[in-house]
Design a protein that fits this description.
The complex is a heterodimer of chains A (357) and B (304).
Chain A lengths: L1 H17 L7 E6 L9 H16 L3 E6 L7 H11 L4 E4 L5 H10 L4 E5 L8 E6 L1 H15 L4 E6 L4 H17 L4 E6 L6 H13 L4 E4 L5 H9 L3 E4 L12 E7 L2 H13 L6 E4 L6 E4 L7 H16 L9 E2 L5 E3 L7 H5 L15
Parallel strand pairs in A: 1-2, 1-3, 3-4, 4-5, 5-11, 6-7, 6-8, 8-9, 9-10
Antiparallel strand pairs in A: 10-12, 13-14
Chain B lengths: L7 H27 L7 H19 L2 H25 L4 H19 L25 H5 L4 H19 L1 H11 L1 H6 L4 H27 L11 H11 L4 H23 L6 H18 L18
Helix pairs in contact in B: 1-6, 1-9, 1-10, 1-11, 2-3, 2-4, 2-9, 2-10, 3-4, 3-9, 6-7, 10-11, 11-12
Classes of the chains: A alpha/beta (357), B mainly alpha (304).
């Protein structure tokens, strides 16, 4: 991927050269894993960036670099941003974790915010959303919508974030439909529309009539639409252009309030290294409209579930739950602790697939 | 593991579809390289073709017109490359890389306002009689027309290079441009035509993604397919027949590995994911690598 390296460097030099920074302004940098027009993950982060610009007006300037590959390459992008005078840098993908820590060590005066990771430092915060709460709602609807009892799942990388989503969706699908079966395909990419479309097609060919995706593009939605009778859910963004069918609901990430609050903290000088993990309650995770393609009783019970998750009355990982090997994970009524969830590397009982190691 | 859930007929049928975009882009690049020009801008031309095809198809309502638009868009972009490298003698590697960057940016700009729009449907071609043959019918004869257009282009390129006088001239230009020039052939003109053909084919490959395979417009949607096309040209030792094999092998193993995963095969996913690349490289390397065209990547100026 030498060539991609060259390209990223060139894009970066170009992008930052045009955004020469005046010193009295606070500069906020964003590193994106996909293009801002992906219609999913990066699209929502960029929407939040625009909200920051809107909120602060001339006091804040934002810069961003899109389609930055995960891995060592990201380090140079962040270094460049820091050298160009960014005061706060959001690195918005799990795969930037070690790079963020490395670069942050070289620039103690620059604040870093890493999304979905677990490594922190004095000038590195982490933040993430409890997407698994949304996955619970998806599983709840999916389990009742499927007729073949086969649910296809397009996963990206075997990291805790993704595994947590699979488990949460499975638990809640199984709860309403004991016969449900999950078919999981690992795409090993966050964004590759052709591959995602292929994965969706393969799952549909193998009998899945509900497709859940943890990749960022809308390609699986289009594949499901072409198949005609397959249900999907928007991922990271509403993907409303596929509503009311195949997209019957969605998980929406709303980063704007967090980004605005953190930028304000830098301006005020009150920024501290923190670990934020918010769900439906604080509004970081929103559930997109459940369309009329979903039967009214299913919709009502899904909305009740959302409400219980929102108030905190119910936790998506509540015992009794066993690990895949049959050993007890949570006793009856016990609630999973955040530490286990953050590092989740096992499937719950009932899933037949294996996690790639 | 439940291998019975994999339908071999559907698998082989989707192989042909999965291979088509790479095959189209690669066959164009093959002609360009046989003429002695190394254009690394395939990715840029593909994505430009994808967006041009999509925009034209949405506005006219006809996927066919969309594909023509894609070919024109790809060819126009390649003209920039041709002008810079053939007339201004710029470095082909650097110019090609720049073309990819430019194409990615240009396509994102052109695609504004087309995100989330649906492409007009491009129905499969159920060929009468042939399509009714059991097993072979659904595998080979029930695809959208572009699959066959792609195959026809590969066959035409093969025949053109092997049997036609013009093909001989093109190869001569690629093997030794000084000699071709001394014989009175117009090196630059031949190369410009080859570059435009390469751009048009890459455009078609991109449009196949945005109009048939995905089918919608998303920024950066080719996601590296152009680089794979470039690699397949080299591993196929610049021969159309092997290129076809390489593209089908790559497409086939890609689809197969997804099928195996969905069926819960007891093979580590990492190995399955790398399988398309390994299989394609291994087979094409074992088939005795050929020699690159003699003047590949070199600039030509008649005064020398």
């Amino acid at each position: 991927m030498k060539i991609k390296t060259v390209l990223t460097g060139a894009t970066l030099a170009f992008g930052l050269a045009t955004g020469a920074v005046a010193q009295d302004k606070t500069t906020v940098g964003f590193v994106y894993v996909g293009p801002i027009g992906d219609g999913g993950w990066t699209y929502e982060h960029n929407k939040a960036r625009l909200a920051v610009e809107e909120h602060f007006g001339d006091a804040v300037e934002t810069v961003y670099v899109e389609s930055v590959p995960e891995g060592p390459d990201a380090e140079r992008v962040m270094t460049q941003m820091a050298l160009q005078g960014a005061d706060l840098i959001f690195t918005t993908s799990f795969g930037y974790m070690d790079q963020t820590i490395n670069v942050a060590a070289q620039f103690p005066d620059v604040k870093f915010e890493h999304a979905t990771g677990y490594k922190r430092a004095d000038n590195v915060s982490t933040y993430s959303a409890r997407f698994y709460e949304g996955r619970a709602v998806q599983g709840h609807i999916a389990g009742q919508m499927t007729e073949s009892n086969i649910i296809g799942y397009i996963a990206s990388y075997p990291i805790p974030e993704v595994i947590r989503g699979i488990n949460s969706a499975y638990i809640h699908a199984k709860e309403v439909n004991p016969d449900v079966e999950f078919r999981i395909v690992w795409a090993y990419t966050w964004f590759d529309p052709a591959k995602e479309a292929e994965a969706a097609t393969v799952l549909i060919e193998q009998g899945a009539d509900v497709i859940l995706q943890h990749t960022d593009s809308t390609a699986p939605q289009a594949a499901a639409q072409a198949a005609g009778n397959v249900v999907t859910f928007g991922q990271a963004s509403d993907m409303a252009e596929f509503a009311p069918f195949p997209r019957v609901s969605s998980i929406i990430d709303d980063w704007a309030p967090y980004y605005i609050a953190r930028t304000q903290a830098v301006i005020d000088g009150t920024w501290e290294s923190t670990d934020t993990w918010d769900g439906i309650g604080p509004g970081m995770v929103a559930i997109g409209e459940i369309t009329d393609a979903v039967p009214a009783d299913v919709k009502a019970s899904a909305e009740a579930l959302i409400e219980r998750l929102r108030t905190g009355e119910y936790h998506a990982f509540t015992g009794p739950l066993n690990r895949q090997d049959g050993s007890v994970w949570l006793a009856d009524g016990e609630i999973a602790d955040d530490g286990t969830l953050a590092g989740m590397n096992f499937y719950v009982e009932g899933i037949t697939a294996e996690i790639p190691q | 593991m439940d291998l019975s859930s994999i339908n071999p007929i559907l698998l082989l049928a989707s192989l042909m579809v999965a291979a088509t975009p790479i095959m189209l882009a690669a066959i164009g690049e093959l002609v360009v390289e046989r003429a002695g020009v190394l254009n690394l801008g395939v990715e840029g031309m593909m994505i430009t073709g994808a967006v041009c095809g999509f925009v034209v198809a949405v506005n006219t309502g006809s996927p066919w017109v969309g594909f023509i638009g894609a070919a024109v868009g790809g060819a126009l972009l390649s003209l920039i490359f041709g002008f810079l490298t053939q007339f201004l003698m710029s470095n082909q590697v650097a110019t090609g890389l720049a073309l990819t960057l430019f194409g990615l940016g240009l396509s994102a700009l052109m695609g504004q306002g087309y995100i989330g729009i649906k492409a007009p449907a491009f129905p499969d071609w159920d060929i009468p009689l042939l399509g009714d043959i059991p097993v072979i019918g659904p595998i080979v004869f029930q695809h959208d027309p572009m699959v066959y257009v792609g195959l026809a282009i590969v066959a035409a390129v093969w025949a053109f290079l092997k049997y036609s006088r013009a093909g001989l001239i093109l190869r001569a230009v690629g093997e030794n441009h000084e000699a071709a020039h001394a014989l009175g052939y117009h090196v630059i003109r031949v190369r410009m035509l080859a570059i435009m053909f390469g751009g048009a084919c890459a455009g078609l490959g991109g449009a196949y993604l945005s109009l048939v395979r995905v089918p919608q417009w998303t920024e950066g949607m080719t996601a590296g397919a152009g680089w794979i096309a470039l690699a397949i040209v080299v591993f196929a030792s610049w021969r159309p027949g092997r290129l076809l094999l390489g593209a089908y092998l790559f497409g086939g193993v890609t689809v197969l590995q997804l099928n195996l995963q969905a069926a819960g095969a007891a093979i580590a996913v990492e190995y399955l994911s790398m399988a398309p690349y390994l299989a394609t490289i291994a087979v094409l390397v074992i088939m005795r690598a050929g020699r690159a065209p003699g003047s590949l990547g070199q600039s030509f100026h008649a005064s020398r």
